[in-house]
Design brief:
This protein has 23 helices and 17 strands. It is α/β, with parallel strands linked by helices.
Length: 677
């Protein structure tokens, strides 16, 4: 009777440890290779990359600060990089604005506004107007754009209403609009949370087509300014002011650096060092707060204030915020230095309140005071009335039903817009393959993935060997210098076989050891060796994980990986290519003799990675995709925005160039797809 692999391990454990301990040790533990807990290994590696990019950014800024001329050039370069990362906007279409109702407050009045930022993609908003009772100043008045933070009810949130009302009472026309998936703009009703979850899910599809939730929210902001300036009550000779807190601080930050019509701007409870935010209590935030490749372009939170200098900017903060105040204070010193070199030190203002996260009374009073100083040359303190009128959610409801998706049968969601763009890009994808040589196409694919061309040879460490009958299991660590260790199990047949030999690389999303008794054992019947590896973030180096609201275990590592310009999918492809280097390289130091054709077998979520590895490396003779999780980004991901665990498969802008079926066509007869579930 043959003893199976698990049986071998149990047998060995009986020899090595007391019998009472045998049952307590799982098969997974017995096949473990790395010592200690490696749940933080990949995370720490990514943060170290961020730290290096931060040092490079600081050095560039230090050099730029030497003269006004070098600084201006540096800021222009930052602005160009930002515009490149964000991407181009489409031609403007008619806003088709509608006023659906009116409200009367104390010292202000409100109009309920509806307009289209894209055709059939509506924005719900409230326009706050002075009524003269609180401030006798006659119009037209300066316009202020108010961006709402991550409240489920959007513009109806009490503190946002109070801020807008206070601004109106002091002589400003204020437009407060619902962000994507908040208030009356629900996008994915089945998502577990309002904006924070939905923004992240929508970001998956948006990134595939070269957009982002940042892009969509910025466009909403651009069109909101268009609407503000269309109103006769707004003084169009003056710039537009903008403020918002939390997610509204995010929107303010991105838009104030983009739209030249914004003058004084005051992001609240947002600005800090990006890497510190990654490390902090809340970690990487949701999809609306990140643009891929910011890190490699040297763009941090504060740089959005710098690239618009010397336009007036106020950064508002809270001492008890989860956006750590120490980091906010530190990064704002960059702004102080920049505005000083530009000889406009008074145009940057920093304010902190003894408060928690949000637009609290101290922040409201300060932001109104600061806008009043900038627009009316009145620096006097502002005191909020003891009772500032707040309307109910029903009262501020712009739509008939309370949701655009139920008011308009033709309403187009952000997911729909991304899908439309993917279809539009089909021409670009065809041209990508028709107009370039295969060599050039493969180089473009490498660039999109962040897969590097020149990599050091891997170091291979044998940490243990199990022999039984005609099979050997080598416990290996594969690692390039400075990179994450990749554990592997090398299964080898020791019998002399006259049949052609075959080497297999085996990839499973749950780890290298889960199919020891299943698929790996079966592969050994037709192969001389099987190398099962845990690509980074899988198996032994599986990250400790992200907040469950993000619907992806890989959210935090995926976000940081994109920040440094190396998508986690691309890093995992590099790990596969390292396994190829090992099997095809010199192994004399390990006393290993391996030969034959190289076959790559990938299971479920590993299949897109295997496709890329096989296309990029012709040393892989054949590739077999078993039970593919997705076979097309366009058909399987964009069409299903609620799909979980997609972060690790995202390559920003990939659908401008190719989809997974394109890679399958390149492989031709080298590819076998087995969907046997």
């Amino acid at each position: 009777m043959k003893t199976n692999f698990i049986g071998w391990l149990v047998l060995l454990s009986h020899v090595c440890v007391p019998a009472a301990q045998v049952e307590e040790k799982s098969v997974v533990e017995q096949l473990r290779i790395l010592e200690g807990d490696h749940q933080q290994t990949l995370w720490n590696y990514l943060l170290a990359q961020c730290d290096q990019l931060d040092l490079q950014r600081a050095e560039r800024l230090s050099i730029a600060l030497k003269t006004p001329e070098t600084l201006k050039q540096h800021l222009q370069d930052l602005k160009r990089s930002y515009q490149q990362l964000l991407g181009d906007f489409p031609p403007k279409t008619p806003l088709n604005p509608t006023i659906t109702g009116h409200l009367i407050g104390e010292g202000f009045r409100v109009e309920k506004v509806l307009f289209e930022s894209f055709p059939n993609h509506h924005v719900t908003a409230l326009l706050y107007l002075p009524d003269g009772s609180a401030n006798p100043r006659m119009g037209p008045w300066p316009g202020i754009l108010f961006a709402c933070g991550h409240s489920a009810n959007g513009k109806a949130y009490s503190s946002y209403q109070k801020t807008c009302a206070l601004l109106a009472r002091h002589g400003f026309v204020v437009l407060s609009y619902d962000p994507i998936s908040q208030g009356e703009r629900t996008q994915l009703p089945s998502a577990s949370r309002f904006g924070t979850t939905t923004h992240t899910l929508l970001n998956i599809g948006a990134r595939l087509v070269g957009r982002s939730v940042v892009w969509y929210e910025a466009w909403d902001g651009v069109r909101s300014i268009d609407y503000l300036l269309s109103r006769p009550e707004v003084d169009s000779t003056k710039p537009i002011g903008m403020t918002g807190t939390s997610g509204g601080g995010t929107q303010t930050t991105f838009l104030m650096a983009l739209d030249q019509r914004i003058g004084p701007a005051a992001p609240s409870c947002y600005t800090m060092k990006r890497t510190t935010k990654f490390r902090g209590r809340s970690g990487p935030a949701d999809g609306c707060q990140h643009l891929p490749n910011e890190g490699i372009h040297g763009i941090d939170h504060i740089d959005y204030s710098l690239m618009r200098a010397p336009r007036p900017t106020a950064v508002l903060a809270a001492t008890q915020d989860f956006f750590e105040i120490e980091s906010t204070r530190e990064t704002c010193q960059d702004a102080v230095a920049v505005f000083k070199v530009l000889d406009e030190p008074d145009r940057f203002h920093f304010f902190e309140a003894e408060a928690e996260h949000g637009m609290h009374q101290e922040h409201r009073q300060e932001v109104v005071r600061w806008f009043r100083q900038r627009f009316y040359q009145n620096p006097e303190p502002v005191l909020e009335p003891n009772k500032l009128q707040v309307f109910s959610e029903v009262q501020v409801q712009v739509t008939r039903t309370g949701q655009l998706v139920t008011d308009f049968a033709s309403q187009v969601s952000v997911a729909d817009l991304s899908s439309q763009e993917a279809h539009h890009l089909s021409t670009s994808r065809k041209a990508f393959w028709q107009d370039h040589s295969l060599t050039n196409c493969l180089e473009e694919i490498r660039t999109l993935l962040g897969v590097r061309n020149s990599l050091a040879s891997p170091e291979i460490k044998l940490v243990g060997r199990i022999r039984h009958q005609r099979t050997t299991i080598d416990r290996l660590i594969l690692q390039r210098p400075g990179e994450v260790p990749i554990p592997g199990l090398l299964f080898r047949k020791q019998s002399i076989d006259t049949n052609p030999t075959r080497m297999v690389i085996y990839l499973h999303p749950q780890g290298k050891e889960v199919e020891v008794e299943g698929e790996i054992k079966a592969l050994l019947t037709t192969s001389s060796s099987v190398l099962a590896i845990d690509v980074r973030g899988v198996g032994e180096t599986r990250d400790q994980g992200s907040n469950t609201k993000y619907h992806s275990h890989d959210h935090r590592i995926g976000t940081v990986a994109m920040h440094i310009g190396r998508p986690i999918a691309g890093q995992r492809v590099e790990d596969i290519l390292m396994a190829v280097d090992f099997l095809k390289g010199d192994r004399s130091d390990l006393n290993l003799s391996l030969e034959g054709e190289l076959h790559l077998v990938a299971i479920e979520a590993m299949t897109p990675l295997a496709l890329h590895a096989a296309v990029l490396d012709c040393r892989i003779d054949t590739v077999e995709l078993r039970r593919p999780l997705i076979q097309s980004w366009m058909e399987d991901v964009l069409s299903s925005p609620l799909r979980r665990e997609m972060t690790g498969l995202v390559v920003p802008g990939v659908l401008k160039k190719y989809d997974l079926p394109d890679l399958a066509r390149v492989l031709g007869e080298r590819l076998l797809v087995v969907d046997d579930d």
